[in-house]
């Protein structure tokens, strides 16, 4: 059976996620309306700018429906700004920015930015077999607290200096979030992992 994964298409790197999802065998569609949301088996929230996406969720009347769909068990994956939106608490954001509370975690926005804006590193990600995952971080958040029931999938390795040990990939049930952007590297294993989560339900 074909799985249809929606990509929230208000802002951000929507096209890159759709391409990666299609390459691993999902059908995809852009989600901008409640009707679009109702037509998908899962949703990806792309990288971009979380405060802008938060504002646009309000403008497009999607905030409440999306939050309710996530609370009702719609599988979701958020990368970077998408991770911020899936959090239950966000530090260093605008006071009016809202998040969707799909994962019980506290995320600090632009956390690495205090040291360096963007960087790449190889990560061991739990559940992803084979070579380490090449992770691209662009003004990325990190995870400062996870609740019970949240699995930590990856931490920044020791070579990364000051930020070593920081949590950068988590999963709670059918919801996945990464600080980094697998959609820009051509390594499809994170998208494959998400698709198998959606298939398992
Ligand atoms: N810094 C951005 C934010 O706060 C996230 C950056 C990204 O998605 N690459 O939303």
From TrEMBL:
- Which GO terms of the molecular function aspect are on file? glutaminase activity; pyridoxal 5'-phosphate synthase (glutamine hydrolysing) activity; transferase activity
One cellular component term from this protein's GO annotations in UniProt:
cytosol
Q: Which SUPFAM superfamilies match?
A: Class I glutamine amidotransferase-like
Is-annotated flag, keyword Heme? no
Signal sequence region: none
Q: In which pathway does it act?
A: Cofactor biosynthesis; pyridoxal 5'-phosphate biosynthesis
Record HAMAP family: PdxT
User: Its quaternary structure?
Assistant: In the presence of PdxS, forms a dodecamer of heterodimers. Only shows activity in the heterodimer.
- Purpose: Catalyzes the hydrolysis of glutamine to glutamate and ammonia as part of the biosynthesis of pyridoxal 5'-phosphate. The resulting ammonia molecule is channeled to the active site of PdxS.
In Swiss-Prot or TrEMBL terms, this protein is called Pyridoxal 5'-phosphate synthase subunit PdxT
Instruction: State the organism of origin.
Output: Tsukamurella paurometabola (strain ATCC 8368 / DSM 20162 / CCUG 35730 / CIP 100753 / JCM 10117 / KCTC 9821 / NBRC 16120 / NCIMB 702349 / NCTC 13040)
Name the gene behind this protein: pdxT
């Amino acid at each position: 059976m074909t799985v249809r994964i929606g990509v929230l298409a208000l802002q951000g790197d929507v096209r890159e996620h759709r391409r990666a999802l299609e390459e691993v065998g999902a059908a995809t569609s852009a989600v901008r309306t409640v009707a679009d949301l109702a037509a998908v088996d899962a949703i990806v929230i792309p990288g971009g700018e979380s405060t802008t996406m938060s504002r646009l969720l309000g403008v497009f009347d999607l905030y409440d429906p999306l939050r309710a769909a996530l609370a009702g068990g719609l599988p979701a994956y958020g990368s970077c700004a998408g991770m911020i939106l899936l959090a239950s608490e966000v530090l260093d954001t605008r006071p009016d920015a809202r998040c969707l509370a799909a994962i019980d975690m506290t995320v600090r926005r632009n956390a690495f930015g205090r040291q360096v804006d963007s960087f790449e590193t190889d990560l061991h990600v739990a559940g992803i077999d084979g070579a380490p995952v090449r992770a691209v971080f662009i003004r990325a958040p990190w995870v400062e607290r996870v609740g019970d029931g949240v699995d930590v999938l990856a931490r920044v390795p020791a070579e990364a200096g000051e930020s070593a040990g920081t949590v950068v990939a988590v999963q709670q049930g059918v919801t996945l979030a990464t600080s980094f952007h697998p959609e820009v590297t051509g390594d499809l294993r994170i998208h494959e992992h998400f698709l198998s989560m959606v298939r398992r339900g």
